[in-house]
UniProtKB/TrEMBL annotation:
One of its GO terms (molecular function) is beta-aspartyl-peptidase activity. This is Uncharacterized protein. Keywords: Autocatalytic cleavage, Hydrolase, Protease. GO terms for cellular component: cytoplasm. Pfam families: Asparaginase_2 (PF01112). InterPro entries: ASRGL1_meta (IPR033844), Ntn_hydrolases_N (IPR029055), Peptidase_T2 (IPR000246). Belongs to the Ntn-hydrolase family. It catalyses: Cleavage of a beta-linked Asp residue from the N-terminus of a polypeptide; L-asparagine + H2O = L-aspartate + NH4(+).
Length: 326
Protein backbone atom coordinates (compact mmCIF):
# COMPACT_ATOMS: atom_id res chain seq x y z
CA UNK A 1 0.00 0.00 0.00
CA UNK A 2 1.33 3.43 -0.96
CA UNK A 3 1.21 5.63 2.18
CA UNK A 4 0.63 8.87 0.24
CA UNK A 5 -1.99 7.80 -2.30
CA UNK A 6 -3.61 4.97 -0.34
CA UNK A 7 -3.39 2.88 -3.53
CA UNK A 8 -2.31 -0.73 -3.59
CA UNK A 9 1.19 -1.21 -4.99
CA UNK A 10 1.38 -4.21 -7.34
CA UNK A 11 4.08 -6.55 -6.04
CA UNK A 12 5.55 -9.88 -7.08
CA UNK A 13 8.16 -12.12 -5.49
CA UNK A 14 9.58 -15.36 -6.96
CA UNK A 15 11.98 -18.09 -5.83
CA UNK A 16 14.05 -20.64 -7.68
CA UNK A 17 14.40 -23.21 -4.91
CA UNK A 18 16.23 -23.45 -1.58
CA UNK A 19 19.28 -25.73 -1.41
CA UNK A 20 23.08 -25.56 -1.61
CA UNK A 21 23.14 -24.07 -5.12
CA UNK A 22 26.69 -24.63 -6.47
CA UNK A 23 28.63 -21.72 -7.96
CA UNK A 24 28.28 -23.26 -11.43
CA UNK A 25 24.50 -22.71 -11.26
CA UNK A 26 24.51 -19.45 -9.27
CA UNK A 27 24.41 -17.02 -12.18
CA UNK A 28 21.79 -18.98 -14.15
CA UNK A 29 19.60 -19.19 -11.03
CA UNK A 30 19.80 -15.45 -10.33
CA UNK A 31 19.27 -14.47 -13.97
CA UNK A 32 16.33 -16.90 -14.15
CA UNK A 33 14.49 -15.45 -11.15
CA UNK A 34 15.14 -11.89 -12.37
CA UNK A 35 13.67 -12.70 -15.79
CA UNK A 36 10.64 -14.44 -14.27
CA UNK A 37 9.81 -11.64 -11.82
CA UNK A 38 9.87 -9.12 -14.70
CA UNK A 39 7.44 -11.24 -16.73
CA UNK A 40 5.03 -11.39 -13.77
CA UNK A 41 5.42 -7.69 -12.97
CA UNK A 42 4.51 -6.70 -16.53
CA UNK A 43 1.22 -8.54 -16.09
CA UNK A 44 0.54 -6.62 -12.86
CA UNK A 45 1.40 -3.12 -14.14
CA UNK A 46 -0.75 -3.70 -17.22
CA UNK A 47 -3.71 -4.23 -14.90
CA UNK A 48 -3.54 -8.05 -14.93
CA UNK A 49 -4.53 -10.21 -11.98
CA UNK A 50 -2.24 -11.68 -9.33
CA UNK A 51 -3.15 -15.19 -10.44
CA UNK A 52 -2.19 -14.43 -14.06
CA UNK A 53 1.07 -12.88 -12.84
CA UNK A 54 2.14 -15.91 -10.79
CA UNK A 55 1.21 -18.30 -13.61
CA UNK A 56 3.27 -16.33 -16.13
CA UNK A 57 6.24 -16.03 -13.77
CA UNK A 58 6.23 -19.75 -12.95
CA UNK A 59 5.88 -20.69 -16.65
CA UNK A 60 9.04 -18.68 -17.30
CA UNK A 61 10.85 -20.63 -14.57
CA UNK A 62 9.47 -23.96 -15.86
CA UNK A 63 10.78 -23.14 -19.35
CA UNK A 64 14.26 -22.39 -17.94
CA UNK A 65 16.39 -25.58 -17.78
CA UNK A 66 18.33 -24.19 -14.79
CA UNK A 67 15.37 -25.02 -12.56
CA UNK A 68 13.83 -28.29 -11.33
CA UNK A 69 10.37 -27.69 -12.80
CA UNK A 70 8.97 -28.35 -16.27
CA UNK A 71 12.05 -28.39 -18.53
CA UNK A 72 14.89 -29.27 -16.13
CA UNK A 73 12.89 -31.51 -13.78
CA UNK A 74 14.86 -34.10 -11.80
CA UNK A 75 14.46 -37.86 -12.33
CA UNK A 76 12.77 -40.41 -10.07
CA UNK A 77 14.27 -43.82 -9.22
CA UNK A 78 12.96 -45.21 -12.55
CA UNK A 79 14.77 -42.37 -14.37
CA UNK A 80 11.45 -40.74 -15.21
CA UNK A 81 10.07 -37.22 -14.80
CA UNK A 82 7.03 -36.83 -12.53
CA UNK A 83 6.02 -33.26 -11.75
CA UNK A 84 3.85 -31.50 -9.16
CA UNK A 85 2.34 -27.99 -9.43
CA UNK A 86 -0.27 -25.79 -7.77
CA UNK A 87 -1.92 -22.40 -8.19
CA UNK A 88 -4.32 -20.55 -5.88
CA UNK A 89 -6.11 -17.20 -5.74
CA UNK A 90 -6.86 -15.39 -2.51
CA UNK A 91 -10.26 -13.86 -3.28
CA UNK A 92 -12.47 -16.97 -3.17
CA UNK A 93 -9.67 -19.42 -2.22
CA UNK A 94 -10.00 -21.20 -5.56
CA UNK A 95 -7.13 -23.59 -6.16
CA UNK A 96 -5.95 -26.19 -8.66
CA UNK A 97 -3.09 -28.67 -8.52
CA UNK A 98 -1.57 -31.64 -10.33
CA UNK A 99 0.78 -34.29 -8.98
CA UNK A 100 2.89 -37.03 -10.56
CA UNK A 101 2.04 -35.68 -13.96
CA UNK A 102 4.19 -36.65 -16.95
CA UNK A 103 4.99 -35.26 -20.43
CA UNK A 104 3.68 -31.75 -19.69
CA UNK A 105 5.84 -28.71 -20.46
CA UNK A 106 4.07 -26.31 -18.07
CA UNK A 107 2.40 -28.12 -15.16
CA UNK A 108 1.42 -24.80 -13.54
CA UNK A 109 -0.92 -24.07 -16.47
CA UNK A 110 -2.46 -27.53 -16.15
CA UNK A 111 -3.01 -26.76 -12.45
CA UNK A 112 -4.68 -23.51 -13.54
CA UNK A 113 -7.02 -25.50 -15.79
CA UNK A 114 -7.90 -27.78 -12.85
CA UNK A 115 -8.79 -24.62 -10.91
CA UNK A 116 -10.74 -22.94 -13.71
CA UNK A 117 -12.41 -25.89 -15.43
CA UNK A 118 -13.16 -28.55 -12.81
CA UNK A 119 -14.86 -28.90 -9.45
CA UNK A 120 -11.70 -30.51 -8.06
CA UNK A 121 -8.55 -29.18 -6.45
CA UNK A 122 -5.97 -31.92 -7.11
CA UNK A 123 -5.63 -34.40 -9.98
CA UNK A 124 -2.81 -36.96 -9.96
CA UNK A 125 -0.93 -39.25 -12.34
CA UNK A 126 -2.94 -40.85 -15.15
CA UNK A 127 -6.05 -38.84 -14.31
CA UNK A 128 -4.11 -35.57 -14.52
CA UNK A 129 -2.70 -36.59 -17.90
CA UNK A 130 -6.15 -37.64 -19.15
CA UNK A 131 -7.45 -34.23 -18.12
CA UNK A 132 -4.56 -32.56 -19.99
CA UNK A 133 -5.54 -34.44 -23.17
CA UNK A 134 -9.17 -33.44 -22.70
CA UNK A 135 -8.12 -29.78 -22.38
CA UNK A 136 -5.96 -29.97 -25.51
CA UNK A 137 -2.70 -29.53 -23.57
CA UNK A 138 0.02 -31.10 -25.76
CA UNK A 139 1.89 -34.14 -24.52
CA UNK A 140 5.65 -33.63 -24.96
CA UNK A 141 8.23 -36.46 -25.13
CA UNK A 142 9.84 -36.94 -21.73
CA UNK A 143 13.33 -36.49 -23.24
CA UNK A 144 12.51 -32.86 -24.05
CA UNK A 145 12.14 -32.14 -20.31
CA UNK A 146 15.34 -33.91 -19.24
CA UNK A 147 18.63 -32.00 -18.99
CA UNK A 148 22.19 -33.45 -18.84
CA UNK A 149 22.37 -32.05 -15.28
CA UNK A 150 19.35 -34.10 -14.22
CA UNK A 151 20.86 -37.28 -15.67
CA UNK A 152 24.23 -36.63 -13.98
CA UNK A 153 22.55 -36.03 -10.67
CA UNK A 154 20.45 -39.18 -11.01
CA UNK A 155 23.60 -41.22 -11.66
CA UNK A 156 25.28 -39.71 -8.57
CA UNK A 157 22.33 -40.00 -6.19
CA UNK A 158 20.20 -43.01 -6.98
CA UNK A 159 19.06 -43.16 -3.35
CA UNK A 160 16.40 -40.81 -2.04
CA UNK A 161 17.81 -40.50 1.47
CA UNK A 162 21.17 -39.61 -0.03
CA UNK A 163 19.51 -36.75 -1.93
CA UNK A 164 17.85 -35.54 1.26
CA UNK A 165 21.13 -35.59 3.17
CA UNK A 166 22.82 -33.81 0.29
CA UNK A 167 20.26 -31.05 -0.01
CA UNK A 168 18.46 -30.55 3.25
CA UNK A 169 20.41 -32.08 6.13
CA UNK A 170 23.78 -31.08 7.54
CA UNK A 171 26.29 -32.38 5.01
CA UNK A 172 29.10 -32.38 7.60
CA UNK A 173 27.47 -35.44 9.10
CA UNK A 174 28.70 -37.43 6.12
CA UNK A 175 31.30 -35.79 3.91
CA UNK A 176 31.00 -38.62 1.38
CA UNK A 177 27.56 -37.42 0.29
CA UNK A 178 27.94 -35.58 -3.03
CA UNK A 179 26.44 -32.13 -3.54
CA UNK A 180 23.39 -32.31 -5.73
CA UNK A 181 23.87 -30.40 -8.97
CA UNK A 182 20.40 -29.25 -9.94
CA UNK A 183 17.44 -28.98 -7.69
CA UNK A 184 15.45 -25.79 -7.88
CA UNK A 185 11.70 -25.98 -7.26
CA UNK A 186 10.14 -22.69 -8.34
CA UNK A 187 7.38 -20.46 -6.96
CA UNK A 188 5.77 -17.02 -7.04
CA UNK A 189 3.50 -14.85 -4.89
CA UNK A 190 1.80 -11.67 -6.11
CA UNK A 191 -0.48 -8.80 -5.09
CA UNK A 192 -2.42 -6.95 -7.80
CA UNK A 193 -3.82 -3.41 -7.89
CA UNK A 194 -7.26 -4.67 -6.80
CA UNK A 195 -5.82 -6.17 -3.61
CA UNK A 196 -5.99 -9.79 -4.76
CA UNK A 197 -3.15 -12.14 -3.83
CA UNK A 198 -2.14 -15.43 -5.48
CA UNK A 199 0.59 -18.03 -5.35
CA UNK A 200 1.96 -20.80 -7.57
CA UNK A 201 4.59 -23.48 -7.01
CA UNK A 202 5.99 -26.05 -9.47
CA UNK A 203 8.57 -28.82 -9.15
CA UNK A 204 10.06 -32.00 -10.55
CA UNK A 205 10.49 -33.02 -6.90
CA UNK A 206 13.61 -34.63 -5.52
CA UNK A 207 16.07 -36.84 -7.42
CA UNK A 208 15.65 -40.60 -6.92
CA UNK A 209 12.23 -40.23 -5.28
CA UNK A 210 9.99 -43.29 -5.52
CA UNK A 211 7.62 -43.38 -8.48
CA UNK A 212 4.33 -41.96 -7.22
CA UNK A 213 5.93 -39.86 -4.50
CA UNK A 214 4.15 -36.53 -4.04
CA UNK A 215 5.97 -33.75 -2.23
CA UNK A 216 4.71 -30.65 -0.50
CA UNK A 217 4.52 -28.46 -3.58
CA UNK A 218 0.99 -29.32 -4.85
CA UNK A 219 -0.52 -29.52 -1.36
CA UNK A 220 -2.47 -26.47 -0.25
CA UNK A 221 -1.08 -25.23 3.07
CA UNK A 222 2.29 -26.95 2.56
CA UNK A 223 3.65 -25.90 -0.85
CA UNK A 224 1.92 -22.56 -0.48
CA UNK A 225 -1.19 -20.72 0.59
CA UNK A 226 -2.92 -17.42 -0.06
CA UNK A 227 -5.87 -15.47 1.26
CA UNK A 228 -6.72 -11.83 0.47
CA UNK A 229 -7.37 -11.31 4.18
CA UNK A 230 -3.74 -12.12 5.02
CA UNK A 231 -1.27 -12.59 2.14
CA UNK A 232 0.48 -15.29 0.13
CA UNK A 233 3.29 -17.82 0.62
CA UNK A 234 5.22 -20.23 -1.66
CA UNK A 235 7.62 -22.78 -0.18
CA UNK A 236 10.55 -24.96 -1.25
CA UNK A 237 12.77 -27.51 0.46
CA UNK A 238 12.48 -30.99 1.91
CA UNK A 239 8.90 -31.87 0.97
CA UNK A 240 8.25 -34.48 3.65
CA UNK A 241 9.39 -32.02 6.35
CA UNK A 242 7.32 -29.18 4.89
CA UNK A 243 4.20 -31.38 4.80
CA UNK A 244 4.64 -32.38 8.45
CA UNK A 245 4.65 -28.75 9.66
CA UNK A 246 2.20 -27.33 7.03
CA UNK A 247 4.83 -24.69 6.44
CA UNK A 248 2.83 -22.22 4.33
CA UNK A 249 -0.26 -22.23 6.55
CA UNK A 250 2.01 -21.86 9.54
CA UNK A 251 3.35 -18.59 8.14
CA UNK A 252 -0.17 -17.38 7.37
CA UNK A 253 -1.15 -18.02 10.98
CA UNK A 254 1.84 -16.07 12.30
CA UNK A 255 0.87 -13.13 10.07
CA UNK A 256 -2.71 -13.31 11.33
CA UNK A 257 -1.30 -13.06 14.84
CA UNK A 258 0.33 -9.75 13.82
CA UNK A 259 3.87 -10.78 12.92
CA UNK A 260 5.46 -9.07 9.90
CA UNK A 261 6.00 -11.09 6.71
CA UNK A 262 9.70 -11.38 7.58
CA UNK A 263 9.12 -12.38 11.22
CA UNK A 264 6.49 -14.94 10.22
CA UNK A 265 8.81 -16.47 7.60
CA UNK A 266 11.77 -16.69 9.98
CA UNK A 267 9.68 -18.15 12.80
CA UNK A 268 8.17 -20.89 10.60
CA UNK A 269 11.53 -21.90 9.10
CA UNK A 270 12.96 -22.06 12.65
CA UNK A 271 9.99 -24.18 13.74
CA UNK A 272 10.68 -26.65 10.93
CA UNK A 273 14.33 -26.89 11.99
CA UNK A 274 13.39 -27.43 15.64
CA UNK A 275 10.53 -29.81 15.06
CA UNK A 276 11.57 -32.02 12.13
CA UNK A 277 15.27 -31.15 11.70
CA UNK A 278 15.19 -30.37 8.03
CA UNK A 279 15.52 -27.33 5.85
CA UNK A 280 13.82 -25.25 3.19
CA UNK A 281 12.88 -21.75 2.15
CA UNK A 282 9.85 -19.50 1.77
CA UNK A 283 8.74 -16.32 0.03
CA UNK A 284 5.98 -14.37 1.74
CA UNK A 285 3.84 -11.39 0.79
CA UNK A 286 1.43 -9.66 3.16
CA UNK A 287 -1.75 -8.15 1.71
CA UNK A 288 -0.32 -4.67 2.46
CA UNK A 289 2.64 -5.35 0.12
CA UNK A 290 5.11 -6.20 2.86
CA UNK A 291 7.71 -8.77 1.72
CA UNK A 292 9.45 -11.54 3.68
CA UNK A 293 11.77 -14.36 2.74
CA UNK A 294 13.69 -16.90 4.74
CA UNK A 295 15.73 -20.06 4.11
CA UNK A 296 17.70 -22.53 6.21
CA UNK A 297 19.60 -24.04 3.26
CA UNK A 298 22.88 -22.52 2.10
CA UNK A 299 21.24 -20.56 -0.69
CA UNK A 300 17.91 -19.63 -2.28
CA UNK A 301 17.57 -17.64 -5.50
CA UNK A 302 14.83 -15.02 -5.17
CA UNK A 303 13.72 -11.76 -6.79
CA UNK A 304 10.99 -9.20 -6.07
CA UNK A 305 9.54 -6.26 -7.99
CA UNK A 306 7.62 -3.43 -6.37
CA UNK A 307 7.38 0.26 -7.33
CA UNK A 308 9.79 -0.35 -10.26
CA UNK A 309 12.50 -1.56 -7.86
CA UNK A 310 13.92 -5.00 -8.57
CA UNK A 311 15.53 -6.66 -5.55
CA UNK A 312 17.23 -10.05 -5.73
CA UNK A 313 19.64 -12.32 -3.91
CA UNK A 314 21.07 -15.80 -3.48
CA UNK A 315 23.13 -15.93 -0.28
CA UNK A 316 21.91 -15.33 3.29
CA UNK A 317 21.29 -11.60 3.94
CA UNK A 318 22.20 -10.71 0.36
CA UNK A 319 20.02 -8.06 -1.32
CA UNK A 320 20.94 -6.39 -4.61
CA UNK A 321 18.76 -3.63 -6.08
CA UNK A 322 18.22 -2.12 -9.49
CA UNK A 323 15.54 -0.02 -11.19
CA UNK A 324 13.17 -1.71 -13.63
CA UNK A 325 10.89 0.54 -15.64
CA UNK A 326 8.56 -1.01 -18.19
N1 LIG B 1 9.73 -29.25 -2.06
C1 LIG B 1 10.11 -30.00 -3.24
C2 LIG B 1 9.71 -31.44 -3.03
O1 LIG B 1 9.93 -31.97 -1.95
C3 LIG B 1 11.55 -29.94 -3.55
C4 LIG B 1 12.21 -28.59 -3.41
O2 LIG B 1 11.59 -27.60 -3.09
O3 LIG B 1 13.43 -28.50 -3.61
O4 LIG B 1 9.25 -32.06 -3.94
Amino acid sequence: MDDKTGKITPTILVHGGAWGIPDTLAEASVEGVKAAVKVGYEVLVNGGSAVDAVERAVRSLEDNPAFDAGHGSVLNSLKQVEMDAVIMEGDHLNAGAVACVQNIANPVSLARLVMDKTDHVLLVGRGANMFATEMGVPSVPMETLVTPNAVKEWEEMMAYNQTIRSCFKNRNIDEAVPVQTGHDTVGAVALDSKGNVAFATSTGGITAKRPGRVGDSPLIGSGGYCDNRVGAVSTTGHGEAIIKVCLAKHIMQYMEQGYTAQEASDKAIQYMTDRVQSSGGVITLKNNGEIGLSFSTERMAWASLQSNTLNYGLNPDEKCSEKFII
